[in-house]
User: Fold this.
Amino acid sequence: MLLRLRSCCSSAGMIIKVQVLQQCQYHPVNKFACHERITHIMAKPGILGRSSSVPRSNESMRIIFSAVVGVMLGYLFGISFPTVNITKLHFPSSIISYIEDRNSGITTQTLLNHAWTSAASHKNNSVSNPDEIPKIYVPTNPKGAERLPPGIVASETDLYLRRLWGEPSEDLTSQPRYLVTFTVGYSQKANIDAAVKKFSENFTIMLFHYDGRTTEWNEFEWSKRAIHVSVRKQTKWWYAKRFLHPDVVARYDYIFIWDEDLGVEHFNAEAYIKLVRKHGLEISQPGLEPDKGLTWQMTKRRGDQEVHKVTEERPGWCTDPHLPPCAAFVEIMATVFSRDAWRCVWHMIQNDLVHGWGLDFALRKCVEPAHEKIGVVDSQWIVHQVIPSLGNQGKAENGKAPWEGVRARCRKEWGIFQTRLADAEKAYYLDHGITPPNLTGA
Assistant:
């Protein structure tokens, strides 16, 4: 009994002694050997003996007491310290790049410390019960981003080229205010080179390549800083719908969407912008030299004016002097849009109607009053060279040349677009209990 009591209060060495004595009870023949073993064990340094049992027992008690107190303090400290939910830690994406590239100048420890500090700070500033933390939901955020805090939402972007190194805030030495796009084939490189030189460094240059040839353009120095998009056998309106979303080009005051067959000897882009601002034009085009390539009187250059907004057409062509093609009208070969006008026009471009025919008659839907905000800039004019290069990208069928199939598709698209627009307007009025204007004689 005494041995059992001491075994409870002593160290591990005492437990060994009890086990040996119990073994000797079952082996009386080995009693002498057991006695020697016990003596040997008790003689080992650090094992309790008769002369050191009290001090060692006190030391053991202190150890046990310290351990108990430590556990209690740790428990109290743990329940009082804010917990951090590891699932809510959002580590910077550069952690991944650090794992992939050990030569990164930022250590993993630094990034982790930042993430943990941010999480702890958020926890300290919130309620104690995680279930009571309000969920973020901002209905005014862009669709799909309602769960994000508004301060992190980047709803618009740009086409500015950036470095792969250094401080992001130091990437841009300039921020062009205007964008010009050309839909091009390499055979028109000389024409495009001449056109690009009419646009200052205040313009971002963007080329849409319908023939798949891009690297050849590097012979021009400006091409190395231009943006190149290459998809074979597509039109400028196909490109514009997919690569010129209003939120992508929102940094630009004006967007030029031009063909490749335009002579620009008498054109200066900066002077053009000044006139557009002066006359309040939201949608415009340069005047066309009347010697060739002229379809509409509205786009014909007038030598005695800076800008004109109305014209007279052939008899019967204009039912209203404020409507196309006598006013509120420009063609689509060299159109220039303000930022706000383009946001509207982009939504009107149909995904499957790639030629844009009929769009020129509908541009007036995007500005008000259209006959005041759509016009032609006469003092900065161009020449339409009428080069059917895109038409040659068509396919010969039924004995017809490739360009004939392209032209037939253009006319068909015009009819489809007119029908869609008329049906959409009619449906809107009927849904709102209004008699459609064409039924009232308006």
Remarks:
- The first strand starts at residue 178 and ends at 184.
- The beta strands are 178-184, 203-209, 227-230, 254-258, 262-263, 283-288, 307-308, 334-338, 374-384.
- Residues 1-54, 84-91 have pLDDT under 50 and may be disordered.
- The radius of gyration is 41 Å.
